[in-house]
Amino acid sequence: MERKIIKTEDGSVTIHLPEWNEQYHSKHGAVQEARHVFLKMGLFYHLETFNPSEISILEIGFGTGLNAFLTMIEAERLKQKIEYTGVEAYPVSAEEVLQLNYPEACQAEECQSEFSEMHTIPWEERSEVTKYFSLNKLEKKFDEIEDIELYDLIYFDAFGARVQPELWTEEIFSIMFKALKENGVLVTYAAKGSVRRAMLANGFLVEKLPGPPGKREMLRAVKKLDESS
What we know:
By secondary structure, the protein is an alpha/beta fold. The chain is built from seven helices and eleven strands. The strands form two sheets. The protein has an eight-stranded mixed beta sheet with strand order 6-7-5-4-8-9-11-10, with helices on both faces. A three-stranded antiparallel beta sheet has the order 1-2-3, with no helix packed on it. The chain is globular, with a radius of gyration of 16 Å.
């Protein structure tokens, strides 16, 4: 499938798949979208709500590494220990990585070496990228995840249901529910009714939130087993 590097509206780039008319990040701004959906509504929400000493994050769709990179920057800024696992069935190529301008677009040029390291460290092997941020990249399909109550937070960043509906089913969100600890949080850019219903069918408490630039709404789901907690 043809793949193109394109610039988004905030100056950051993404990978575009013309055959699907789909891209890894929003054309309205890759960095803006990631900061809003996964940091503001996910990471910061969890930290402010639960004030954990350490947080374990699972990313569904490691892709370009943008979400991991932004999370690493915040781990260093906040001095917050983060264990990050990124699952990706089809890793981006080394040639594509060289064209990703995220350190510059995030005004974090001093972290260029860490961004490069995220893409060069071995798969299936936990690595300490910084003092506060460790990364374990797993090359597998999402339905192969078998973790039970391991994660505090899930960044669900799969390709959209329009092109890959099999990634947004009740079966997939059952895997996500099992992988989360109690009171664990899942955030995604998606807001389709079918996605929300698939989450609800698995016991998630689901809320619609304001979306990133160019998107009206997004979803946040919480695994809350004890209604009184």
